[in-house]
Request: fold
Amino acid sequence: MEKLMQFNYLYYKLSQRLSTFKDWPFLEDCNCTPQKMAEAGFVYQPCESQPDVAVCFFCFKELEGWEPNDNPWEEHQKHSRSCRFLTNLPSWETLTLEQLIKLENERMNNLIRKVDSQHTAEFEAKVQEVRIKLQNL
Ligand SMILES: [Zn+2]
Reply:
């Protein structure tokens, strides 16, 4: 979660997203190359238990379990239909300051929703843990 907080506006730039795909397992002869992943809005966020996690910098949808034939753009659409990145997001080179401010407002709302749902899930897991302990007293 702390890693998500480090997602900043520089990820609007394709080259910044692409630079995160070091040691990405799918490089050649497949659909989900680093270039295609970055073009579809993803940033590489591996962790020990999930080495192929990619996160959209805009909607913060996390996807893992990539297969070589997966099309990153289609997978993004399938799992996050309302992501603004998939609509008419202007490229970094043509983005105006006014557009960037509006988009950042929306992106930060997405981040808050994501962090909130993670906190809720963690809290519910702890509640369940305590409930089991109490039942076993
Ligand atoms: Zn997205």
